[in-house]
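Researcher: I'd like a candidate sequence for this fold, 339 residues long. If you have to choose between options at a position, lean toward the conservative one.
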């Protein structure tokens, strides 16, 4: 059906199309998917952690537990056992009280109950300064850990709840919405390296729509599930690369279009980061291969098509299109085209 290629059984497409999706996924794999949890893996923002849940006060843990209840509850038994202080039912400010544990509270009381504004410090250096309601942190307050971490925002029943900012010393900062001590709702999480996530959180995980920015200017905008990139989304590289399509577990998976800096394009199916299924690869001069792929290479039936103005077997295609059909295996044409 067309002229024989002059490459001894090989189509020239195989020499110019050994580009797979790894170019972009290796970058997306450096997203910090675990909120304020971090390992020492790489120099951008690594993927680590056995669990994705980010608890407010546990800087290097992934469980849903927090340090805060153990702080706020430590003196509760002592307060219950103390003789009633002050005028019953009247809120009043008293001198600093030192507990048996060494912790100190300065602020407002109603009887034996911390109520109003007050500051409590613990022997390890942790402090809470803010509003209290019936011995619990409720309202607006600031909790500073002895390791330098700090949360400033709204509280309910001793946990972060509402709007607030968490400063993870020398690592990350999160500002946004909280519920029951976990990131919940819309928020922004930024890393000291310059990376940043803006979007939706659910139960401490990136979940829903969000945008992730890399320090050098690349970004991903799209769907997240379980702290990983899942569903439809767009990756735009600072070097000009672009992918729009489906993702699973933070790699390209499903249908999409990938565009390189030099305007090469692939539109079709992917399977876990590799071209797999049916797709079309197009060169900047208009030539294209359309057909089947496996593991990132042409595999199965396909066609190599030249358009007007391109060269075929040393001859210029002057008008229309020239199509070469054939069968490919692992990126090489194994069956000569019809004549």
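Model: Candidate sequence:
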């Amino acid at each position: 059906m067309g002229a024989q290629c002059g490459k001894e059984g090989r189509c020239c497409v195989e020499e110019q199309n050994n580009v797979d999706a790894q170019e972009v996924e290796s970058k997306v794999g450096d997203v910090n998917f675990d909120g304020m949890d971090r390992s020492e893996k790489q120099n951008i923002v690594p993927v680590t952690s056995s669990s994705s849940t980010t608890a407010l006060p546990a800087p290097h843990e992934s469980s849903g537990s927090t340090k805060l209840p153990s702080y706020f509850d430590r003196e509760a038994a002592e307060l219950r056992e103390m003789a009633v202080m002050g005028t019953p039912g009247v809120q009043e400010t008293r001198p600093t009280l030192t507990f048996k544990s060494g912790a100190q509270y300065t602020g407002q009381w109603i009887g034996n109950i911390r109520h109003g504004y007050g500051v409590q410090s613990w022997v390890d250096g942790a402090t809470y300064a803010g509003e209290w309601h019936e011995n619990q942190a409720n309202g607006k307050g600031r909790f500073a850990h002895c390791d330098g971490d700090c949360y400033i925002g709204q509280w309910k029943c001793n946990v972060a709840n509402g709007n607030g900012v968490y400063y993870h010393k020398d690592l990350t900062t999160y500002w946004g919405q909280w519920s029951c001590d976990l990131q919940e709702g819309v928020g922004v999480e930024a890393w000291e390296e310059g990376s940043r996530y803006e979007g939706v959180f659910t139960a401490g995980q990136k979940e829903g729509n969000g945008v992730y920015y890399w320090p050098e200017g690349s970004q991903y905008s799209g769907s997240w599930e379980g702290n990983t990139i899942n569903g439809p989304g767009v990756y735009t590289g600072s070097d000009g690369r672009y992918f729009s399509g489906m993702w699973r577990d933070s790699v390209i998976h499903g249908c999409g279009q990938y565009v390189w800096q030099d305007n090469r394009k692939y539109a079709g199916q992917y399977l876990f980061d590799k071209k797999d299924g049916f797709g079309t690869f197009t060169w900047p001069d208009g030539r294209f291969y359309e057909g089947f792929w496996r593991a990132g290479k042409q595999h199965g039936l396909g066609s190599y098509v030249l358009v007007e103005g391109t060269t075929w077997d040393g001859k210029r295609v002057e008008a229309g299109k020239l199509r070469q059909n054939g069968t490919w295996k692992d990126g090489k044409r194994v069956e000569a085209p019809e004549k």
